[in-house]
């Protein structure tokens, strides 16, 4: 037995996986960062408790929709990984489907919002999504809003008037924006909700604990999966703090997926940039909590994460992953499930007296 | 000055309202009971933490509906007094309206469930409401379920199969019903949700604190309102722990309200008993948290509690209340708002792999 083999065996017996993990961890730390334990700041905003309280109320407020029955929390369900489990956006209600709902969890770390990146930040996303009737929006493949500018302005005004007619909201807006003389204003809705959403992060995933030095946080299969995830090239697009969310990529760059996964009439990022290079490009989704966010792809075409991984290998990397490789990569992806936000339901102020609308 | 007047003045100065409250409190205690501080037991059930955890998951579970997008919490919104603010059942979506949603808060204390009392208890109500597609049910004025028996059985089976396909649910049902060999069973869904719902009580309302001896818990206007509530006869129907919820009464017994409030095609309790005496009879709703549960009546025809009180006076008691009287009664009703349950959102297990449905 050669000396190097003896050293290796001793290392396995004494240092265990620590020795073996060091190299992998060094490579991983160049590609990924853990979710921070505290929510990041939004530039130009101060997250006061009053703003966060208002933002949480509005996040759970069904009366923010024109039909008074859809809140942010309905599609970005905080019991379900920040998505809707495919109810409206995929699954057997696919006739309603535009694009699959993207999770609100860790969305603050994404480069831009929506599959086509048409909202620069969370506040933009909120204002966009609220003003479009979400159910109608779902029918448009996330494209241009189905509301004309006149109606758009009127809908904004109706939302503001509604809140002005609810004393509990008038008080909450005043507390959140004490420096403003007329705080029940449309822009403040987006600001408050965005600040609340920035708190919806999921630290302490096994992968993050491992990144920080806890060798036991990942199983051997998960470490093998991570190696494959790096070596096969998945990290080309899925990297950074969100293991994705940082760039756009054409879906089907090597091999075009079937229409179920890539419907020909949804040109993705092209709708925003009108650049031909962006045809069929989509934001690379974050893989944080991917275990919880089925169904997958912008179409929500499958609930099967193994199938999703295999398809990515074929369409983006031109490789056929073996079943064992897919299993290991999925094992690694499961290590991206972090501590879910503990959310106490807000109590929403009642509308009383004659209707404001 | 006569002696009795002097005694009265001294009492006002020394004992203050305590003296004045004693008589009113004695009368009130014969008519009402406070909400207990701990949830009541359900006969024949043991509320283990595991059953309650499962019940809470199922309460927030949109996949329990056939369309996978409506949970109990959508219509019985725990941010909104246990109702939907009129979104589906009244308000400007009235074209969908069947009957106004009744609050789940303190529902455990009602004699029966639904406006027509067709469910004997919470477990029955759950099974009824889940099996009817709630959106379809809303179109039938809460009458016979719009699902035929064959479809009913098939829908039950689909729900059970769905949960059997989600490992997290299989584990949760096993923990909740450890004595059963096949715990993912339809009846257990109703049992678990009913147990969770029984915890949704709102103790410590100002009125309850006053009933227990805290004279300061009610304002003078609220005490005047309580007196009127008793003297004018409201207590004939609105009494007991839930200030209602204990009996059926014909709506319009003295004077028939307009069709907006009492549509001629909804015969109420008659649909259950087929007794002509029950034509247009409805369960007397609980007035607990009534401040939070607008819009009012089985039609959700008004958000204005003063208008609702005035109409009740006319239609049920044949009296015309003065504006001051209505104001005081509403002030009293506002004292029925209790401590809302603090609900931490459950995390629901993901469906993964090929669809079970």
TrEMBL record, chains A, B:
Heme c 2 binds at residues 234, 237-238, 312. Gene3D superfamilies: Cytochrome c-like domain (1.10.760.10). GO terms for cellular component: periplasmic space. Keywords: Heme, Iron, Metal-binding, Oxidoreductase, Periplasm, Peroxidase, Signal. Residues 1-20 form the signal peptide. It is found in: Periplasm. The keyword Signal applies. InterPro entries: Cyt_c-like_dom (IPR009056), Cyt_c-like_dom_sf (IPR036909), Cytochrome_c_Peroxidase/MauG (IPR051395), Di-haem_cyt_c_peroxidsae (IPR004852), MauG/Cytc_peroxidase (IPR026259). Heme c 1 binds at residues 72, 75-76, 92. GO terms for molecular function: cytochrome-c peroxidase activity; electron transfer activity; heme binding; metal ion binding. It comes from the Bacteria. Its cofactor is heme. The keyword Heme applies. Residues 50-174, 220-337 form the Cytochrome c domain. Binds 2 heme groups per subunit. Binds 2 heme groups. This is Cytochrome C peroxidase.
